[in-house]
């Protein structure tokens, strides 16, 4: 996790102060903390959290790349045959295509074959061969995805979808909707680097700390105050390895198949409720673009602000980022 919730705990007589649970979905530790809801009590809050985690499990069963039987797994192994998908899977795919268009193809959810070649979890990582990368790149082009109702067809039989750059944030938005439907008025959803703050806490904004790249988790570059907002932090340092003195990170260039050359080490985006999926995709785009072009990109998008950290530790904010305070 690269964002931290900073909250001073205060006791309220006769009131359940906080109900919190952790679980593991979408390759990340997830935490949901409920501070207030209609007729708040521990049992009711726990039931809401359990329902939220059940929803995470549902989406994971639909959009996971590795889980056999998921819609995405079926698409990636159909060899160009049409696959009937859950409407929710279609929604996430369409969101990915939307950001492919917005980024002029720099963000491409059909990078699956290339991603498969890079193992950032291996104890002894190896570089993929140039020939394998070249072959995998031939299958990358989001325009090949054809959607007809709830049916998805890959025009290139070798094409593979990976929703890692948008799926987690999208699920976070749906979790927030579910909690609000259950009467939750104050809560924090933390899906790894994706934080969603519902309401505020006792009339005060939530304080979200942004972790300093390459540091211990309690060392911050600063913090921002938010309510009814989403904060998404992404970094090139999150998954990487070093070979022969050179560092290779997990943000891949759709043209070369190798890690993108960027001066961004970390970027944090903040926007309103319901935009975690958008911020998920846009944070990846910012990592690809670099600080200068990333700032220009975000400043063209209504209702989104950003904080960038470059390779020298310099912090750059978009013009409207007025809730962030450096440490």
What are the key terms here?
17 strands, 327 residues
Describe the fold and architecture.
- There is one protein chain.
- This protein has helices spanning 42-63, 71-76, 87-102, 112-117, 130-137, 167-181, 276-289, 291-299; strands at 3-6, 19-25, 28-37, 83-84, 145-148, 151-154, 184-191, 194-198, 206-211, 220-226, 229-235, 240-243, 246-249, 264-272, 305-310, 315-317, 324-326.
- A hairpin with a 2-residue loop joins strand 12 and strand 13 (246-249).
- An 8-stranded antiparallel β-sheet has the order 2-3-7-8-11-14-15-16, covered by helices on one side. Strands 1-9-10-17 form a 4-stranded antiparallel β-sheet, with no helix packed on it. A 3-stranded antiparallel β-sheet has the order 4-6-5.
- The chain has 8 helices and 17 strands.
- 29% of the residues lie in helices and 28% in strands.
Write the SSE topology:
Elements: E1 3-6, E2 19-25, E3 28-37, H1 42-63, H2 71-76, E4 83-84, H3 87-102, H4 112-117, H5 130-137, E5 145-148, E6 151-154, H6 167-181, E7 184-191, E8 194-198, E9 206-211, E10 220-226, E11 229-235, E12 240-243, E13 246-249, E14 264-272, H7 276-289, H8 291-299, E15 305-310, E16 315-317, E17 324-326
Antiparallel strand pairs: 1-9, 2-3, 3-7, 4-6, 5-6, 7-8, 8-11, 9-10, 10-17, 11-14, 12-13, 14-15, 15-16
**C-alpha-based Rg, rounded:** 20 Å
Tell me the span between the first and last alpha carbons. Answer: 19 Å
Mean pLDDT: 93
Name the structural class.
Answer: alpha+beta
Tell me the total number of β-strands: 17
Secondary-structure element sequence?
EEEHHEHHHEEHEEEEEEEEHHEEE
Largest sheet: 8 strands, antiparallel
Q: In which order are the strands of the major sheet placed?
A: 2-3-7-8-11-14-15-16
Shape: globular
By DSSP (H or I, 4+ residues per run), the number of helices equals 8
Range of strand content: 25-35%
Stretches where pLDDT falls below 50 for ≥5 residues?
Answer: 7-14
Helix content: 25-40%
